[in-house]
Write a structure and sequence with these properties.
The complex is a heterodimer of chains A (221) and B (184). With 221 residues, chain A is mainly alpha-helical. Chain A has nine helices and no strands. In chain A, 57% of the residues lie in helices and 0% in strands. Chain A is elongated. Classes of the chains: A mainly alpha (221), B mainly alpha (184).
């Protein structure tokens, strides 16, 4: 069975093509993939592949003509972007992977189709969100166990953005203190530890926080 | 969280080369999918990171060659979870589309990529999930029908029928949006 021509290549109206081009040409920030790789403790090379929509547009020269100034601007932007990609230095040799724990949640263990996802109270952390929190926190633990404070801190910063009211927030704060201690930033670790103890006088993590302070030296408390 | 026993906390190490290859091959694809599935731009990087955290966690259980399919399924679920958590109101009718869709321009003036992208996403969100998925994979990601069939695990004929339906829906929704704009 032969595929029909894509709308971007042939039969779409100008307006349709304009919308499709806008979607097909979108790209993540150039450093995003590197940040992910760093967080996971692996090295990746920067690919030079462009968005598929840009390839479709390049294959259809008439589209660019019809698109006029907007299309020209996009094409020029693309050339500039590709130039940036091409000039990027090749990535380093692959490093060792992060020490990852075993999976924690059955809910996390399969990528279920959309229509099989349960609809839950939007205010309650569903099993998927919780599993994502657990996965991230476990990765942080793996990094800290291997004394890789930098990727651990990168993941913890992502946790703060992603789960501002996360179930494992105290755990994340504890690990942040530990990561700063490992990184040699004892002042920051002490400040965060003091704040944690003040805010959470009854936390079950307090003993661990005090242990971390003790481990940082006599001037840490 | 209760501390785990030592035996349980022994970390499983994914193959770093395999994980790196999966990231290199599919990161941009997954990021773009998350965006088209309605994840706001400023959340897309974190969402993509979450998807690949799961890929890393489950790597030893993923059949070699199925990494993209696994990441794809995870991205679909995560996009839905994230949108629900963010309380993101997605447009369900033309009224909302008008209110959110950059109503200050005619089609000829839609030179702003961001605005065009917002309108595209609003139109996509009005399409049924099955049609939308096939439409995005074929029209925006330029996957072939056999690739799509393998990715979403449906027969080739189903891909063809969903694509046909999706194109009709897309054209109808775009025409409605265009008509509204030109009528102003």
């Amino acid at each position: 069975m032969k595929d029909p021509a894509r709308l971007l290549e042939a039969s779409a109206s100008d307006f349709e093509q304009q919308l499709l081009r806008a979607g097909a040409s979108e790209q993540p920030p150039t450093a995003a993939m590197q940040r992910l790789a760093e967080g996971l403790g692996v090295s990746v090379s920067t690919p030079t592949a462009s968005a598929p929509g840009l390839r479709l547009m390049a294959a259809n020269k008439s589209t660019l003509v019809v698109a006029g100034i907007a299309g020209l601007g996009l094409a020029l932007g693309t050339v500039a972007w590709l130039g940036t990609q091409d000039s990027a230095p090749p990535g380093p040799a692959r490093g060792s992977a992060a020490a990852l724990p075993a999976p924690q949640s059955a809910a996390e263990n399969s990528a279920l189709p959309h229509d099989r996802v349960a609809t839950a109270d939007s205010n309650a952390p569903d099993s998927h969100s919780l599993a994502l929190e657990v996965a991230r926190i476990d990765l942080v633990r793996g990094h800290l166990a291997a004394r890789r404070s930098k990727p651990a801190l990168a993941l913890l910063q992502g946790y703060e953005r992603e789960f501002p009211s996360g179930v494992l927030r105290q755990e994340a704060e504890l690990l942040t203190i530990e990561a700063h201690g490992q990184a040699g930033d004892r002042r920051r670790a002490r400040t965060l530890a003091a704040r944690f103890l003040a805010r959470n006088p009854d936390s079950p993590h307090n003993a661990r926080v005090r242990d971390l302070l003790d481990a940082m030296g006599p001037d840490a408390r | 969280m209760a501390p785990r026993a030592d035996a349980e906390s022994t970390p499983a190490r994914p193959d770093p080369d395999r994980l790196a290859r999966a990231i290199e091959a599919d990161y941009r694809f997954i990021w773009r999918l998350l965006r088209r599935f309605g994840v706001p731009e400023h959340h897309a990087e974190d969402a993509a990171q979450q998807v690949f955290l799961i890929v890393a966690e489950r790597m030893s259980d993923i059949t070699p060659g199925r990494e993209r399919a696994f990441a794809f399924g995870t991205a679909l679920r995560h996009a839905q979870t994230l949108r629900r958590r963010l309380g993101r109101e997605l447009p369900h009718d033309q009224q909302q589309l008008d209110e959110r869709g950059g109503t200050h321009s005619t089609p000829d003036e839609l030179v702003d990529q961001k605005r065009a992208r917002e309108l595209l996403d609003q139109i996509l969100q009005q399409m049924p999930q099955d049609s939308r998925t096939v439409f995005i994979l074929f029209e925006l990601e330029a996957l072939s029908s056999p690739e799509i069939a393998a990715l979403i695990e449906v027969p080739l004929g189903t891909v063809a029928s969903r694509l046909r339906r999706a194109r009709e829906q897309f054209r109808t929704l775009v025409a409605e949006a265009q008509h509204k704009r030109e009528g102003r």
